[in-house]
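Annex B. Sample input.
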Amino acid sequence: QVQLVESGGGSVQAGGSLRLSCVASGYWSNSNCMAWFRRPSGREREGVAAIDADGRSYYKDSVKDRFTVSRDNAKNTLYLQMNSLKPEDTGMYHCALAPVYCRTDFRDVGQYDYWGQGTQVTVS
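Annex B, continued. Sample output.
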């Protein structure tokens, strides 16, 4: 059974940084897509970034110059380095796993079979 466990969230002031981590256990494939989604309070879930097993990455336009998605396949871990944080980045951040390479639109939630419980990020 696949489990995804996020960590690294917290409360920071605008302009600060956080690094999120997501550890996957129970299943692994060399061809998969891992992604970060967030759900701001009272709003729809939105895709933030994604990365294929070979390192090809995808970003939401509003974060591409501030966030960096990466992964360590040996550790089955996904990361999201978030710099220059803004209040609009506030939300619950979830990682997701698809057993195939990312689709062109990584925001399509239908491609992800597994989701983590989330870690809260609050920017004030």
